[in-house]
Amino acid sequence: MKAEMEKIVSLSDGDSTAELQEYLSSLTDDQLIKNVSKFEGNRRRRSCILKVWYLSGSPPSAPEGCSRRLLLYQHCIPLCESGDLQADVAADIIGLLMLETHNLPGPSLAQLASLFVEAIKGGMMGSGKSLELFPTVLTALAACEAVSYGKGELSGEEYKKQLINSLCSSRDVPLAPEELQFVVEKVLRMFLKLELQEIPPLVYQLLLLSAKGCKKQILDGIISYFKESMDLEVQSIPQDQLRHVEGTTILHIVFAIRLDHELGREFLKSFKTSYGELCPFSIALLLSVARIQRYEEQVFDLLKGAIIKSYKDEQLQQGSKFLQDLLPEHCSVAHMILDTVKNSVFGWDHVTQGLVQLGFFLLDTFGPRPGPFGKASEGSATIAKSPTQQACKLGGRILLEGFKVHEPIRGEILEQVLNRLVTKTASPVNHFIELFSDIVVSAPMILLESSSKVTETFDHLSYLPLATVQGLLKAVQPLLKVSMSLKDALILVLRKAMFSSQLDGRKSAVTGFLLLLKNFKVLGSLASSQCSQTISSSQIQVDVHSRYNSAANEAFCLEILSSLRRCLGQQADVRLMLYEGFHDVLRRNSQLASSIMQTLLSQLKRYYEPEQDLLPPVKLEPCITAQGDQVFLQEPLAHLVSCTVHCLLWLQSSRPSALRNTDDSDDDQDEEEEGYQSELQTILESMTRRMIKSELEDFELDKSAEFSLGSSVGVKNNIYAVLVMGVYEVLIEYNFMKGNYSKSRFEELMELFNRYHKLADILKEKSGKGRVLSKTPRSLLTMGFVSTLLTMLFRDSTLSREEALSVLRSSGEFLRYSVSVALQKIQQLEETGHTDGPDGQNAEKTFRFLCDMTSVLMWRYTNIPSVVEEAGRKEKRSSLSLLCLEGLLRIFTTCQQRYPDKMAQLLSAMDDDTEPDNGNVTEITFFYIRQFQRALFTQLSGGEEEFNSKEAQLLVSILSVLSRQLKPSSQQFVQMITWTVKICKETSFEDSAFCKGLLSLLFSLQVLYKSPAGLLLELCQDIHSQLGDIDQVHTVTEFTIFRAKHTSSLLLVLSQVDRVLDEVDWLIAKKKTQQALEKSSEATQTADQQDPVEKAVTLQLGTLLTALNELVQTALLPGTCTDTLLRELTRTYTILTTLVKYVRINKLFVKLSGSHLTPQCYSFITYAQAKLLRETKAIPNLIFSIEQYEKFLITLSKKSKVNLMQYMKLSTSRDFRINAASLDAALQEQDGSQQTQEPKHKRRKQ
Question: Which GO terms describe its molecular function (predicted)?
């Protein structure tokens, strides 16, 4: 052996390498290995042998040389791992091998790499020294063009990936828990260094590894990578590539959860405690997991909680400047879900089904609920404000966006929406109708592919609630214009419904037929710009006449009209719907005028008295019907006259030029139109003249008439009274519009009003006696007319009209009536979103009327102060100015609710000498705020005798509404707060309602400017000073608004205390969640550092404790205020306990709560027990919460080794106490009972 080695050395020293190669070839593998092993301890000889073997004796170009080099690697790697070599010797060997690795051919590198993989999997890596060589081998392998793999070949790069994949599949490697955690952390850190396409295989191997443990760590790491890291790389990575990688990863995770339910439980558990960690990727993952049945309910409950919590957090943060400054902008879960919908376009079929389920889950869970007696509340959809409304809206948006981008789910979405419209008859379905309408507008042609589902829904129309039918037909109307089959199916259903035994079914038929008449124009009708409604779908540009000729349309419409005429013999509700719809039909289809007007004329003649000498001119008896003892309205006569008048006025105003320009061929038609118009005018003129002459006795409605709803005669008289009043109102509007500012016509109008007013007074007088209609019937005047009337009464200064208008202006009752009707119309608009009569459904025109009214009412209020109107005061009712002010308040409130984006436009419409900049909402709003501030200041400047409480309350309410338009960061907002604080400090009127309103305004402004805690402290100090101490009275006050003992104002202050506690509680909850998620970072935080949230909580609670310390020393009146304060104290101590348990607390804070507040609390408890004179749960609850706080302080003292209890003063009010008087009374009672029982005992013994 020694001789062989010496010969190798001597040959290496020579110049001929051929002899060395020949000699090495003659040796066997065992001999070569033995020669290396023989000289293991000799560092110099080993290095020499390795260099000679490589450089001289084993050229890589020769197969034998490659074989000897590979043999050396295979021998040296286990040798270095054995631990038998010294560290420096092993390092030298590895270094020499690394230098020559790149010379190895591909097959040798593949064998060498496999050697490493097998050693790692088999746990044969001892010291790990040779692992330094492994990356060099992989790098050299990746540079190879082709490597044999199985029966084929792979590139070096692909072969390397296969090795890494095999290596990562370490399920068979035995690992200790700490070793497993180390491996997982190492692999997760490598995510950022890998190519995007390498992530899914690595995720797959990690999930296989999760069977051994670290489930939460693996899932959190994968999700956090896609949440945080992708945001940095998204600019350089194509979107489709990124989304496909995310989709593949989601499939891997879902597959792993299907096989390992423990992994699924860990997955859901991690989200239940960290809603804030949601992201589009994790939401998509949750929705995919929801496809597993056992997790479906849990996932949707979790997402429901996350969505509601997100909206509540957003609402809380938006309503508090304190929270806005303290925390960053809220990250909306709703936006993440909608992003998930967008991302799902990239082949995420496993997510789309979950999105559909989530959308309907939100709509079903958070949709509107039935009102009283199961009826849906009337009104159109308004802006979603509450978290539940926003969640419902989100469900609709998810389904709408999903419908647009995913063809496979369109049929299911449409079917489920229509099914709910048909089946949910007991609850409102406005949200489903809105969704269906949005689907029709966004994708009408796509929807036509599923028209059979819509046709099936039509079959149920006669059985659905009327509101559902109206919404459904309005939503589907764009489809009717492009689908003949759909229109024919609807007509067939409506014809059947016309003969339905159910009233709602017949009303549904009328609704459908009117809709068809409005939307299928006959050629030759006037331009649609005069219509009161526009087609809801701007995407359907179809000329109906190119598909159906005008003759067919006209025949179709006339056929419908003939069907509708049958309704004139049905119930009043059906007739009413017809009268309310005819006007819109006429405006859309003016070619149908003759048929419509003839129908109305013939119907009106049934109730019109043609004999000119007879009074009254209308027959009321046919308008009612009786069934046994019950009396019902049969014909809504006033609405019939109203419909006739408005149709006639519209025809006369819109068609004079058209009539002049017609050809001779249309002369017969023109004569016919002129004939019925003339006849109608004659009838209306006659009705006006004779209604003026008619006395109430002619209608059997004088003061002696019975109006009690308990008898059939009283019901009949009530119906008659409402009909007559309605006819008077319609004739008032007709005569004003036709009067052309003639004094005589306006005098007739006033005569009509006087009759109306007299009847209204009788009804009002009788309303206090028995069961009578106490609510004023809804006025039949249209909103457009009321707007015009108010403008003429208060703002028209045209000299030619002065004489005629003076007739109307001279009547104070008529002025009050006009403004009162305006108030009624505005209220109806606020509640339902529309008004009665023409243009009532047209949002644009209605808003224009609102603007006109606002201008008039503002001018009337500012130019004629209420103090001038002594008559209104003497009659103990609101003056005209107060009615105008109430109208302004209702208009501002309605505009904020129904037209939130048009507030500046509304204010700009109020003409004034100084016109502000219309482009700046804050500027124009503050301009009018100053006017109302001056009016309120004028009220407060006078004495208390001149103070008008109702006007002051209205002014404060208006200021409160307008202040919402100011930006909290603006200078005007600061000025508003300053002014409000000044008024609160200087106001001392004994009016609790006004004081409460003023305080509400102050608090609403304060929370948007800064924390109200400081203001609460000042207010509590003043309350204490004003109401006095429990045993002593103070008289120095700053806010004189508390001069009166206003319970409502005190409760308002306590409600603000509760609001501050809400914010503190919310912050502590967020801090708890943050601590749970960041335990590692918390460990590195030094004791001197204080989190900004902790600091803010400490300052808020510190100020609040000082404020409560003032209140518990105050001699509050027994009752609600005392109970509320006890509850707020209980909640305060509960929050203090939570603070002690989860957040650090300083000594000063403990001292403030323990030394100052707690003793005063026990004194207040004693005071409350003496004053309340009844048992209340608030007192024991408060004592329990104080004791819990002290308990956890003791625990914290032991942990921190700081005696925090030295600041707590224990009270004796919790101790067992003996009431001497009660004890004596009980003992005497016991003695007396024993004396009476003694004889009985003796008799028993005998």
Answer: DNA polymerase binding
